Amino acid sequence: MSELEIKYYSEKKLEEAKTFLDENKPLHALQICLSLTDKVPDYKYAYIKAAQIYRMLGNINPAVCLLNDYLEEYPEDSELRFYAGHFMLENEKWNEAIDVFSYITPEDEPLTAYFLGYAYYMSQDYELSIHYFLKFLKLNKHQDFIIDSYVYLAKCYLKKTDYEKALNYIKKAEGIVSHNWEVNLILAQAYTGLGMFTHAQAPILRALKIVPDEPSCCLAAGNIFFENGEYDKAANYLKNYLDNSVEALDSSYTLYASILYMQKRYTESVAYYDLYLSIHPDDENAKFNKQKVLKAYHSDDEISESLNS
User: At CA 66, angle to CA 62 and CA 67, rounded to 5?
Assistant: First the structure.
């Protein structure tokens, strides 16, 4: 077939696949696309459509393999490479995304540095994440992704417990966009890490004004108000966090239990220590604190009985 005939054939087959998709027949559509990748191996759009169908079917690994197969044969295809990299990021294939984007030097395309920084952050390699976000900021000539880069740099330094640098970068983000709940949350977390709990209060309240029930904000607020001695507020925010968080931090149960103890809500305090101890039965400190609550509870009962006798 001539080049024009191959183009016509490929586009016609892809239209057939789209028709099958419209008829809710994804397996038929996938079969056409895979056949097309065999017959016309350089027709990138068949690979893209096949990857999309695999994702629709919840089968990501074959899609990743298929896109990588194309890139092995046509490594210079930047359009498909960027599509593949995005596809892998969207589907949490961090190492695969790093492999795809590493082929392009940031000097040629600065945006690859941003995507590499993000992939390394999600892989918990904070040193390399910092390296690529800083490189992106150095090379990037446009405003796109600037704020996000500052935010991720601050997050990296929070993970590394370098709160001064975290504060430095999140303030840069705040200087551009101040009414963003995540920016305010990170600002509060950086101040908290530095022990500046009074400074942390204003940004966490700004965050909560935007997202009142966001678990991460409620947890941060609970810790901040606890450190500032405002136990009623701390208890309210921690209770909201415990009620709405899918995976609540273990320490939040014991902190909330300790606040309930200070409020003389002994029965509730014991209940939360019991919840914690059901997960960590060997925690001697929690056992000791629970016994302290029980002792206070019984002591109050004895005082009450004495007054009533």
Answer: 120
